[in-house]
Amino acid sequence: MLNPHDIIKNVRNEGSAVVLELAGEIDMQCSTELRGEIMAILQEKPSALVVNMSQVTFMDSSGLATLVEALQWSRRNGGTFRLSGLQENVRNVFEISRLESFFEIYDSEAEAMAQ
Amino acid sequence: MTEKTDPSPILIISELVKSFSNQRVLDGINLEVYPGEIMVIMGGSGCGKSTLLRHIIGSIAPDSGSIKLFGQEMTTLDDKALNAIRKRFGILFQSGALFNSLTIGDNIALILKEHTNLDATTIEIMVKIKLELVNLREHADKMPAMISGGMKKRAGLARAIALDPKILFYDEPSAGLDPVTSAQIDQLIIDLTKKLHVTSVVVTHEMDSAFTIADRMCMLDKGKVLKVGTRQEFEWLRDSDPADCPSEQDRLIRQFLRGDAEGPITERKLTSDYEEDLLMASLKHEK
After folding, report:
1. What number of H helices and E strands is found in chain B?
2. How far apart are CA A28 and CA B68, in angstroms?
3. What is the CATH number of the domain that holds A28?
4. Chain A residue with minimal CA distance to B192?
5. Which residue among A61, A93, A99 places its CB closest to the CB of B126?
6. Which of B42, B112, B195, B255 sees the fewest Cβ atoms within 10 Å?
7. pTM (2 d.p.)
8. What is the extent of the structural domain holding A56?
9. Which residues is A104 bridged to in the sheet?
10. CB contact (8 A) between residue A62 and residue B126
């Protein structure tokens, strides 16, 4: 089983927001661990969580479901949840699942942070 | 054809032979399927296409020959190894093959609960995503007996893609569906393949669907591969003038693709001993 830190490249605070940088392949082998990491960040109730996915090369539906749950948690806490830098094949997962408009998706982390 | 990111075939079938009661159903089948393509296997009733599919998924052992899926020889795998590899592919059976005692949603959740360690919430969200893909999310709580045949087939597809397989096998996905539902299934097969790079192997005799979805096509007849080619090659044969099809094989494929009543397929059924057979019958009753 993959170590979640293989996916989680970096977590950093940007004012009251948190940026989570992910990398590699998000699949059913690592979604549970990823879920735990994201939920731990959200328990701190940041004003915004920006997930930088520019280095994510693959994501399956378990990864998508994990992000949906993260969005729910974030909203419940009164925070915002944004995604940035999706590669085409990862964006396709959102598109085919009709969830593109469900998330706030930005081309770059800078754009996501500027909101 | 889809751009091949990986030049190695995901599925290689070599010299596959199978007989039932001395009748050869598969007679030296050779076929390769590449990652990210839609391969349509077609042919008339009894040509061996469904039998071939059952061999590929490991339900039937061949008399001889080889099937390599994900680089693994399928024909010699034990049950444990076969079950492991089955998690990596999905199958849409003609009937949908749902558990009648479970709701539509639970049919999909069951696969995820059995084969993953995902959290219950993650599974619940995934079930909704899969059902939305096949336009059945609002029917998640219904039992299979409460929904139509077309809906069962779509639910079967949602179940087939539950584990995000790398390759999907479809047995007559359009059979018995109304035109709109059939078109939706075709589009979903295309989307899964082109957007998520799922490889698809589709067994069908529905030519409209085949020409809509195929990257490449394989025509079977009497347990043999008559032709493997691109969709464009088969379109050319379908639309060609008979005079441009000098070989019996090409004319046979052309007749099948066009659904013509007259042609080599029909002619060969008019067996030469027909008259003799009738006379023998009448002689028998003269005694």
Report:
1. 11, 10
2. 25
3. 3.30.750.24
4. A96
5. A61
6. B195
7. 0.85
8. 4-17+24-106
9. A82
10. yes
